[in-house]
Amino acid sequence: xxxxxxxxxEKKASxxxxxxxxxxxxxxxxxxxxxQGEPDPESNQSxxxxxxxxxxxxxxKTIIDRAIEKAKGGxxxxxxxxxxxxxxxxxxxxxxxxxxxxxxxxxxxxxxxFNKNGGNMGVSGAxxxxxxxxxxxxxxxxxxxxxxxLLLEADLDVRDVIEEDEAVIVYAEPDQFHAVQxxxxxxxxxxxxxxxxxxxxxxxxxxxEDAQVQFEKLIDALEDLEDVQQxxxxxxxxx
Length: 239
Fold this sequence. Notes:
It is a single chain. By secondary structure, the chain is α+β, with helices and mostly antiparallel strands. It has three domains: 5-72, Integrase, N-terminal zinc-binding domain (Arc Repressor Mutant, subunit A), CATH 1.10.10; 80-129 and 202-233, Alpha-Beta Plaits, CATH 3.30.70; 131-201, YebC, transcriptional regulation domain (Alpha-Beta Plaits), CATH 3.30.70. The protein has helices spanning 5-16, 21-36, 45-56, 61-72, 103-116, 144-153, 177-186, 209-223; strands at 80-87, 93-100, 120-121, 131-140, 160-164, 167-172, 194-201, 228-233. The strands form two sheets. Strands 3-1-2-8 form a four-stranded antiparallel sheet. It has a four-stranded antiparallel sheet with strand order 5-6-4-7, with helices on both faces. Strand 1 (80-87) and strand 2 form a beta hairpin. Helix 2 runs parallel beside helix 4 (61-72). The model has no long low-confidence stretch (mean pLDDT 90). Pfam families: TACO1_YebC_N, Transcrip_reg. Belongs to the TACO1 family. YeeN subfamily. Keywords: Cytoplasm, DNA-binding, Transcription, Transcription regulation. Residues 79-235 form the TACO1/YebC-like second and third domain. InterPro entries: Integrase-like_N, TACO1_YebC-like_2nd/3rd_dom, TACO1_YebC_N, Transcrip_reg_TACO1-like, Transcrip_reg_TACO1-like_dom3, Transcrip_reg_TACO1_YeeN, YebC-like.
């Protein structure tokens, strides 16, 4: 699949290391998930997914607890989950997931980021059909053969298992996210380098250098927006 998930995660973590932005985004996402259901990850699958992701980004427990307590406290702060789709340089494709309490502000900011960086927003469904919702789970300390054996023993048929750098990455159906993790946890593996529900491009696009520089500016501009939670795309950004 060639997405190099460990490298992507390291770049995102490095970019956010000097700011509290990543924690703020997780705090908002945890709050929304906890408020939409029970504030208990064992009975709230959406919350459980977010907390698994937060763990891989080393989000402090204080951030997590504060967001859950805020949801328990009956805060009347509400957010809409909205998805925007668009095109970047050379026909590249981008999906932007947001949580917002001001739809007009968010759509204006997302459109501006596209327009100022060689792209343009499309209508709903313009690019999503070229992506697949995918569970991505990464772990270290095992070979791909050992991971495949564990999955086969549990009668789990996933999309793909490949070695990337020093980790093994499992690509699975979204509804297999928890089942795959349970297989590994039952085998004594409790730490994951990646635990994501993502939109994975069916085909990667390689851009010429000048277009890639512009594309990276577009992605940075979108990720810098307060209301943006996730940005997915089909461009191979290399190492």
